[in-house]
């Protein structure tokens, strides 16, 4: 470990020496070559720091290399170095990782590389949802990724991003936004023989979001989904929603709880479904502290 760090520091010193020599009068005639050499030395140093698990130092070295590549107008190489820096900073400084990835995204979008930019917006979103814990910014980056994917006709990738947006929008009680996305993605899935089966799950989640807002609208939504996608009416999810609606209208907490337990005994509830179903239950009971 120590040997790798020492080698990295020597490479940094060598790179700095190359940078200084490129600034003098005599160095100007071979400036590009010296800058290229310095950039390569910073990259080698970064990899040595990675082997020593000195993640911030590695990120710094990749950033130095990226800055040099921008001076050389090598946009792709600069962006790639910012991505490498971001990947290092993820392990030591998540906010700085976000900054580096944003710089890479700016370069890739300027180059018209929107699919790559979308991929890195997803990486940023994942940092916000798991490290920085800022769900609003995670949503924003997933939405931007979806926009870029749609522009490139990568609709499947766009829908994956939108489903993440819907999941978090519902968690933040932004139900109309979640409903719109689930209905949109369900309609798209219905047109695909490979994805058709998943449409029932999206209609199911949209129906639950409706129940969080208004039971009458939920009834109308269920009827609409059944007409749009008759197979939905044969699903366990449809039967559960119908049972929950009946229990909600009667304010029958026991019937509601039993229906959820029966469903969970066959299809395990994930955290999202558990949260949404609890919110509906609280609304039925009128008890905000119900668990």
Question: Please, could you describe this protein's structure?
Answer:
There is one protein chain. The chain has 291 residues and is mainly α. The chain has a domain at 177-291: Alpha Horseshoe (Serine Threonine Protein Phosphatase 5, Tetratricopeptide repeat). The protein is 80% helix and 0% strand. The chain has helices at residues 2-23, 31-51, 55-71, 75-89, 94-110, 114-132, 135-151, 155-171, 175-190, 199-213, 215-228, 236-249, 253-266, 271-285. It is elongated. The two termini are 51 Å apart.
Task: List the uncertain runs.
Answer: none
Shape: elongated
Query: First CA to last CA: what distance?
Result: 51 Å
CATH class descriptor name of the domain at 177-291: Mainly Alpha
Mean pLDDT: 90
The number of distinct β-strands equals 0
Helical content stands at over 70%
Number of helices: 14
CATH homologous superfamily assignment of the domain at 177-291: Tetratricopeptide repeat domain
* Alpha-beta content class: mainly alpha
Q: Taking Cα atoms only, what radius of gyration do you get, to the nearest Å?
A: 26 Å
Order of helices and strands: HHHHHHHHHHHHHH
Which architecture of the domain at 177-291 per CATH? Alpha Horseshoe
Short structural summary:
This protein has helices at residues 2-23, 31-51, 55-71, 75-89, 94-110, 114-132, 135-151, 155-171, 175-190, 199-213, 215-228, 236-249, 253-266, 271-285. It is 80% helix and 0% strand.
How do the helices and strands line up, and which of them pair or pack?
Elements: H1 2-23, H2 31-51, H3 55-71, H4 75-89, H5 94-110, H6 114-132, H7 135-151, H8 155-171, H9 175-190, H10 199-213, H11 215-228, H12 236-249, H13 253-266, H14 271-285
Helix pairs in contact: 1-2, 2-3, 3-4, 4-5, 5-6, 6-7, 7-8, 8-9, 9-10, 10-11, 10-12, 10-14, 11-12, 12-13, 13-14
